[in-house]
Write a structure and sequence with these properties.
4-stranded mixed β-sheet
Length: 119
């Protein structure tokens, strides 16, 4: 991040010098995306999972041992069959049930160290 230096002058005014935050290039901000057509357990290297249940049911399992702060996005792109988000033993917003997504529905979750939170 940037740096901000403040200096109080004798007349009670404040002058500053700041290194402005410069966002990374668009390439640095890109996240992995992948389509899954069968059951899949999310890896730490994943970010967006497109669940395609055109031919069969698809269960996307959240990691069993996630690290605090991890964020994942799961989207159902076709629900001819069911798409289930398996919480893998951790609650999602206090709910101890797996979730079912319908077509074009998505969920963005972040692990807080104890459970998953819907963002």
């Amino acid at each position: 991040m940037g740096r901000l230096d403040l200096e109080r002058k004798g007349d009670s005014s404040i002058s500053s010098t700041a290194d402005l935050y410069k966002p990374n290039s668009p390439a640095d901000r890109s996240k992995p995306i992948g389509t899954k057509t069968s059951d899949y357990t999310i890896l730490a290297s994943d970010y967006t999972i497109l669940a395609d249940a055109t031919a069969n049911t698809v269960t996307i399992s959240l990691p069993a041992s996630p690290s605090a702060g991890q964020i994942f996005c799961i989207k159902c792109v076709n629900d001819t069959f069911a798409v289930t988000v398996d919480r893998n033993g951790k609650n999602i917003d206090g709910d101890a049930s797996d979730m079912t997504l319908i077509e074009d529905e998505s969920i963005l979750v972040q692990y807080d160290g104890a459970s998953w939170r819907i963002l």
